[in-house]
Write a structure and sequence with these properties.
The protein has helices at residues 7-18, 24-35, 39-52, 72-88, 92-101, 107-125, and strands at residues 55-59, 64-68. It is mainly alpha-helical. It folds into 2 domains: 1-90, Orthogonal Bundle (Arc Repressor Mutant, subunit A); 91-126. The chain has a two-stranded antiparallel sheet with strand order 1-2. A hairpin with a 4-residue loop joins strand 1 (55-59) and strand 2. The longest helix is centred in the C-terminal third of the chain and has 19 residues, at 107-125. The radius of gyration is 19 Å and the shape is elongated.
Length: 126
């Protein structure tokens, strides 16, 4: 399922991925220090996320219980593909080249990339 999340929606979804289900009160408390959002803001965001198909709720004993409908990995993959498409025309090579050109890659980053490429090569050869 392709769901595009705003920065604020990512914050809320991260709380749900950490622990679900959660009530509006629990989410408001969990996000208060980081965002300063009111209960009404959380309600609005949850409504939008439900409309997008990212969140669902069940009627609890005293309050609605909200849970994610999408996996963090799926949302991250969608975000990555969208970013690559918008900024680099879909080219992963262009992204890596930009990182290399700006000297933004550490030795640890290069080792990690090397390991990832080796795994991809092995998977392709199977």
């Amino acid at each position: 399922m392709n769901v595009s999340l705003s920065d604020g929606e990512w914050k809320l979804m991260n709380r749900l991925w950490e622990h679900a289900p959660r009530t509006i009160t629990e989410l408001t408390a969990a996000l208060r220090e980081e965002t300063g959002w009111s209960k009404n803001t959380i309600i609005t965001m949850l409504s939008r996320l439900e409309a997008k198909g990212a969140v669902t709720h069940t009627e609890g004993q005293r309050a609605k219980q909200y849970s994610p409908l999408i996996l963090r990995e799926d949302a991250a993959r969608e975000e990555t593909e969208s970013f690559l498409s918008k900024v680099y025309g879909g080219s992963l090579g262009s992204l890596v080249n930009a990182m290399v050109s700006s000297r933004a890659l550490t030795e640890a980053d290069l080792e990690e990339l090397s390991a990832i490429l080796e795994q991809a090569k092995e998977a392709k050869d199977r």
